[in-house]
């Protein structure tokens, strides 16, 4: 007899608080043995088959998020920000779902093109694009390049041998809440040209002076983890005013306005997240008002969500290595991963939750700190996590909402290879990216 047969209430309502749908993929359940399944696959089985730590990615969840954007923003172009997570399969899924793709290096471009993403739907970003990467992008027919410096305009004009569409990145001087590294809308920082300034005009003049550059519009990205819609309304107002200023100064009417990404997701139950319906409303209303005010034709809007597409689709599996109760201190649960597969805690002070996946615990709980295995005192993955008091080494923990900026930010610190990515869908699992082995690491070390 299984646990769920004994306690049928566990099947739905009884378990709901532990598996918050805001932070887990929609297709997450407990199976008949009380184990957590995602995409119809028991996470404990994935840990057994592929080892740990392992990133699990729910294909259905990624696709559903793409569809949610397309439904909420039917007239906008949705450009997935590949920096959040890019593999050939992910590029295929988002292309299938009708999204465009933002890349910021020749490496990301190669992954995208190897998955048959149409180059015309690719947007190239970056505040420092090396010459060779610009050359590669132009040669393979990238649809748009977002200009981030005057030097780049010179390089592009030398490289473009046919009309190349460009956008100009502008900082709209909007300071959203959050970690300083996440506030990319403010003026004094490395990205873009300050709105309303002389440097925007200088850049516009230079772009217009290059016959092979086709000036399509403006771009801004105001920050990350933004759950308040107001800054996006403000960005629309300011950017349309800037487009009108450019029209008045140069007689060109730009057609495209790319509002970047930055839409917040919940990492732990109760965290605020972006409401797409409200975001859509505020963008529409602000656009109507700003265009009417400046007598400006409605530009084509683009959005660049990254995290909001993939974060909740990802779950990281770790095996418990030890449980240590420090006298008069905390309980440390050390797992076989840490800051190299999830640097977000150390980088941004991000907060996560975790649960045991190989059984459904019903007994007493403890409050624990989940520590990584790496040789840094700061290698802590999560604090104040409620876990079963009888948690043992060898059990498997899952950390939800780890699909964005985990694989893409991972390192091989301490000589530990990076985890694989295992996709789940309709009850089966497949490897998208294999585990990095010690042999892989040794391959790069040429020796004497
Ligand atoms: C230009 C640009 N667009 C989009 C994004 C995606 O941001 P997010 O993943 O927060 O949606 C970023 C993230 O840094 C970015 O720099």
UniProtKB/TrEMBL annotation:
Substrate binds at residues 307, 344, 348, 376, 405. GO terms for biological process: lysine biosynthetic process via diaminopimelate. It catalyses: meso-2,6-diaminopimelate + H(+) = L-lysine + CO2. The modification N6-(pyridoxal phosphate)lysine is found at residue 83. It is an enzyme of class 4 (lyase). The active site is at 375 (proton donor). One of its GO terms (molecular function) is pyridoxal phosphate binding. Pyridoxal 5'-phosphate binds at residues 262, 304-307, 405. Residues 60-311 form the Orn/DAP/Arg decarboxylase 2 N-terminal domain. Keywords: Amino-acid biosynthesis, Decarboxylase, Lyase, Lysine biosynthesis, Pyridoxal phosphate. Gene3D superfamilies: Alanine racemase, Lyase, Ornithine Decarboxylase, Chain A, domain 1. Its EC number is 4.1.1.20. It comes from the Bacteria. Its cofactor is pyridoxal 5'-phosphate. Belongs to the Orn/Lys/Arg decarboxylase class-II family. LysA subfamily. Homodimer. Specifically catalyzes the decarboxylation of meso-diaminopimelate (meso-DAP) to L-lysine. This is Diaminopimelate decarboxylase. The gene is lysA.
């Amino acid at each position: 007899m299984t646990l769920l047969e004994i306690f049928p209430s566990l099947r739905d309502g009884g378990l709901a608080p532990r598996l918050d749908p805001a932070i887990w993929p929609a297709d997450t359940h407990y199976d008949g043995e009380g184990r957590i399944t995602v995409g119809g696959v028991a996470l404990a089985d994935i840990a057994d088959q592929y080892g740990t730590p392992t990133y699990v990615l729910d294909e259905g969840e990624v696709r559903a998020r793409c569809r949610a954007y397309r439904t909420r923003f039917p007239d906008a172009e949705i450009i997935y920000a590949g920096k959040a997570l890019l593999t050939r399969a992910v590029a295929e899924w988002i292309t299938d779902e009708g999204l465009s793709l933002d890349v910021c290096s020749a490496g990301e471009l190669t992954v995208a093109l190897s998955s048959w993403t149409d180059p015309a739907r690719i947007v190239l970003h970056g505040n420092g694009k090396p010459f060779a990467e610009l050359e590669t992008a132009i040669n393979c027919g990238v649809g748009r390049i977002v200009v981030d410096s005057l030097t780049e305009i010179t390089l592009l004009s030398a490289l473009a041998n046919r009309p190349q569409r460009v956008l100009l990145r502008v900082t709209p001087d909007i300071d959203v809440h959050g970690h300083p590294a996440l506030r990319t809308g403010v003026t004094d920082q490395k990205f873009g040209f300050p709105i309303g300034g002389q440097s925007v005009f200088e850049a516009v003049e230079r772009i217009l002076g290059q016959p092979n550059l086709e000036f399509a519009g403006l771009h801004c990205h105001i920050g990350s983890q933004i759950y308040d819609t107001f800054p996006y309304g403000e960005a629309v107002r300011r950017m349309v005013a800037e487009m009108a200023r450019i029209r008045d100064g140069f007689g060109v009417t730009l057609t495209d306005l790319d509002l970047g990404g930055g839409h917040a997701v919940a990492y732990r139950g109760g965290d605020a997240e972006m409401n797409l319906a409200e975001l859509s409303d505020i963008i529409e209303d602000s656009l109507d008002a700003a265009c009417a005010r400046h007598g400006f034709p409605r530009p084509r809007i683009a959005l660049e969500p990254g995290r909001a597409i993939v974060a909740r689709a990802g779950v990281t599996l770790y095996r418990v290595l030890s449980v240590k109760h420090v006298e008069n201190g905390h309980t440390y649960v050390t797992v076989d991963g840490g800051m190299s597969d999830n640097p977000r805690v150390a980088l941004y002070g991000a907060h996560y939750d975790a649960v045991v996946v190989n059984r459904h615990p019903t007994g007493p709980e403890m409050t624990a700190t989940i520590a990584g295995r790496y040789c840094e005192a700061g290698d802590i993955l999560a604090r104040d996590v409620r876990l079963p008091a009888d948690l043992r080494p060898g059990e498997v923990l899952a950390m939800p909402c780890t699909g964005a900026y985990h694989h893409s930010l991972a390192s091989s610190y301490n000589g530990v290879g990076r985890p694989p990515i295992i996709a789940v869908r309709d009850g089966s699992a497949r490897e998208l990216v294999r585990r990095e082995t010690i042999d892989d690491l040794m391959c790069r070390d040429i020796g004497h």
